[in-house]
Amino acid sequence: MEDLEAVNLAADWSDISQGLRKDLGHQLHSQWIRPIQLGGFCEDTGTLDLYLPTEFSANWVQDRFADRLSLAWKIARSEVRNVRISVHPGRRKLPDLSLGGDGHRAANDADSSMIAVAAGTIGEQGFTSSVGLDPSLTFAAFVTGESNVLACNAAQRMAANEEPQFSPLYLKAATGQGKTHLLHAIGHAYLSSHPRARIFYCSAERFMVEFVQALKQNQMIEFKARLRSFDLLLVDDIQFIIGKASAQEELLYTIDALLAEGKRLVFAADRAPQALDGVEPRLLSRLSMGLVADIAPADIELRRSILESKLTRFAPLSVPEDVIDFLARTITRNVRELVGGLNKLVAYAQLTGQEVSLQLAEEQLTDILSANRRRITIDEIQRTVCQFYRIDRAEMSSKRRARAVVRPRQVAMYLSKVLTPRSYPEIGRKFGGRDHSTVIHAVRLIEDLRQRDADMDGDVRSLLRQLES
């Protein structure tokens, strides 16, 4: 009976959630309603528990959506008389920012959303510092390419000894493209050159939680003094600095105070400052007054370089070149998924004693691969190749043997084999009914030319970028 009740509650919640999505819109629903988890239902009191992952999100939903949620549940189930919104009881509570004393705190764990403070004490061991930064996220471990070189260079300049030409630095990138890595790297590099520096690192959501707590505890004077005593301010996921106008105002004043003293500020978000929702115009102007550095999605060359940079960790286990190329070609959504896929593949091979192979990768990474795979058609390949080489689309199926036509046709056949699951005979039929042996010859020829001819390799790489973007 309990299992049946849980199923019925889940079904009702699915209907309620879909209705709220239509009312609130995709963005608000995705950010605040979708993370809600169903708790237990007490028949005696008619109370249904709804859980959220953080105190901040629970307070936000309680303030803005509690009445709507309560009404929706009462309509769906007459026995629900009260809806209680709280933090999931099984979630580890984050420690509060210490507002008193000398500001020293222990190193943080792997939770990147927590606040980390660098403060120092002079003692027999000399000056010590603790910031809770991930020791693996350094500039040395950050692989650069065309898509992220500007952001990386700007981040290094921000951490250098000389005064930066721009502040604040605003890093804009989609999830998993490296903005958090650069935030940690700035912290490490700045501490290396300024060992007595005081660093404040947190997520925007955590900043607002700490602000509200200080407000409730009448500790705003201490909070402001501490916040403005830092030499380097690092704030991640600034897109969550919404709501509470007083918290935004305090961040605004903090930015002004730190900039006036020549301090350094770095913010990171998944969108441009002007695209932030619910943020006051004055704060938007401060966030965009320095340098806004984009990190574009990694292209195939950068993805391959990132994978190759990780291979030394797995020695003596070897990862074949065709596996690296396969992962770089197919896992395109973000770098975090790319590295995660490699780690999963290698871990499986080590635990089972198997060799890493293309077949093993296809078998064990089906979820990641299916989520990333964009279906590219042969028609799309032919159209792109014809535009690239400036030939008529009809030449893909014609019988002409002129070199200016044959080579682009062979490139299109090669790309069709690389980027689609089509067989040689299927590809041949799309190119004017050609025999499968003709397609095999074209694929092998282009593979050979890529090894010997830099121009041909450059053409193919350019076409791959266009087709996979």
TrEMBL record:
Organism of provenance: Pelagerythrobacter marensis
GO biological process, one term: DNA replication initiation
GO terms for MF: ATP binding; DNA replication origin binding; lipid binding
Start and end residues of each stretch annotated as Domain IV, binds dsDNA: 350-469
Residue span of region Domain I, interacts with DnaA modulators: 1-97
Amino-acid positions noted as binding ATP in the UniProt annotation, renumbered to this chain: 176, 178-180
Family matches, as Gene3D superfamilies: 1.10.1750.10, 1.10.8.60, 3.30.300.180, P-loop containing nucleotide triphosphate hydrolases
PANTHER family: CHROMOSOMAL REPLICATION INITIATOR PROTEIN DNAA
The name this protein goes by in its record: Chromosomal replication initiator protein DnaA
CDD domains noted in UniProt: AAA, Bac_DnaA_C
Family that this chain belongs to: Belongs to the DnaA family.
Quaternary structure (record): Oligomerizes as a right-handed, spiral filament on DNA at oriC.
Annotated function: Plays an essential role in the initiation and regulation of chromosomal replication. ATP-DnaA binds to the origin of replication (oriC) to initiate formation of the DNA replication initiation complex once per cell cycle. Binds the DnaA box (a 9 base pair repeat at the origin) and separates the double-stranded (ds)DNA. Forms a right-handed helical filament on oriC DNA; dsDNA binds to the exterior of the filament while single-stranded (ss)DNA is stabiized in the filament's interior.
Claim: Membrane is one of the keywords in the record: no
Lineage top rank: taxon: Bacteria
Protein's UniProt keywords contain Ribosomal protein: no
